Amino acid sequence: MQDILFDFISKYVSLTDDEKNAIISLDIFRSVKKGTILLEEGQKTKDSYFVLKGCIRIYYVLDSEEKTTAFYTEMDALTPHCVISKTPSQYYISCLEDTILTVSNTDMEAEINSKFPRFETLCRIFSEELLAKQQIDFDAFKTSSPEQRYLDLLQKRPDLIQRVPQHQLASFLGIKPQSLSRLRARILEKSKE
Amino acid sequence: MQDILFDFISKYVSLTDDEKNAIISLDIFRSVKKGTILLEEGQKTKDSYFVLKGCIRIYYVLDSEEKTTAFYTEMDALTPHCVISKTPSQYYISCLEDTILTVSNTDMEAEINSKFPRFETLCRIFSEELLAKQQIDFDAFKTSSPEQRYLDLLQKRPDLIQRVPQHQLASFLGIKPQSLSRLRARILEKSKE
DNA sequence: TTCATTTTTTAACTAAGGTGAACGATTTTA
DNA sequence: TAAAATCGTTCACCTTAGTTAAAAAATGAA
Fold it and tell me: pTM of the full predicted structure?
C-alpha cells in the first residue's frame, strides 16, 4: 500500500531508503469507512490528505443544501484551505467510498522538510503543478457550458461519472441535479438522430 | 520599485542583504507598454511574472473569440501553465495597462533556490497559498450565479471593475458581454425599487 | 476635429438552467 | 420485512443566459 505513495513520489524525486523509512515511521496511513467525515465546517485542522485508494469529496452546506465542489481519488492530494489560512473550515470533507489515505499534519511536514530538503523541493514542484493544472481546469469551466463540461468530464474522468452520485456530480458541474438529468436526456436524444 | 517586491517577500521570509543583492543582480525588472503581448498561443517559454504595477491578463482565442479568464495586478504572481507542463501555451498573456513587472525564468529560480534554500521555502509556501486560495475562488464560482459572481467581484475587487473593459470582465465571469450589460441593468433596476 | 474602430447597450427571439412538485426506484434503517 | 429516507427522472412554469442585429457611446488614430 505504501508503494503507491512511493511510486507517486518517484515521479518527482528518488528517495533514499533513509528517507522512505523516515516517512514510514511517521505512521500516516489510515483506512476510513465510507461516509466518514474527515473535516467539518467550522473546524480547524492541520491535516492534509493523500488518497491511495477510494474517493473523498469536498462539500459546502449553503442554504442548507449540499454543494459538492471537488472529488479526490487515487493519487490526489488535498491540503484543506483552513490548513493554509489557519481559519475555521468553510467546508466539509467526507469519504464517498471506503478509502485508504495518508494523513499528515503541518508540523510533520515541516520536520521532514528540514531533515530532507529534497522533500521540500518535491512539495514545491508538486504544488506548482497542481496550481497550474487547476488554473487550466478553472479556465475550461469558465469558458464552457454545463453540457460541454459534462461531455469533457465524460472524456477525462469517466470513472467519476460511474462512482459518484448524480446529484453530487451536478453541483460539481455547477448546476442542479434536475438540470443534469435533463441535459443527459438531451445528449441521448441528439445521439439517436 | 524593487521595494514592492521585497516588501512582498518580507511577508513570508526575511531576506539578508546578500540574498536581496543576488535577486537584484538577476536584472529581472521590466517595464512594458499597454497592449504588449508577453506570451502567445503555441509558444513555449520558461518565464514567470510578478506584477509590481499595472495589470496583465490571460486570454484564450476559442472559435476566433477572445475569452479572458484571469487578471493579475499589483503583487500577483503568474507562472504560465506551459512553463510547468513544458508544452506550447494554450493562451495569450497581454498587458492591459502600462505595467512594471519582474520576469524570471525557471533556470534562474533553480539557481537561486539552490543557493538560498529559504527562497525555495518561500516559493513552496507561496504556491501552496495560491493553490488554496484559487480552490476557494473556483468553489465560489461553481456555487453561484453570474449575477452573484458580479456582486461578489464588486465587493472583493472593485478596482477590477473600474480598470478592465466590460467585455473582458464578462468572460472572466463566465458569460457574454451582452449578458453582463443586461445583468447590470437588472441590478440597477432592483436597487431603484 | 473627423473618421474609423471598439465597446457598451438595447431589443427580440431562442435555448437552457432554476424551481417546485410528483413519481417510481433504490437504499437505509428501525 | 416494513417504513422512511434518498435518489434519479420527468413535467410545467419561470427566469436568465445565448444569439443576432442594430444603434449609441466611447476611444483612438490620422
Answer: 0.96
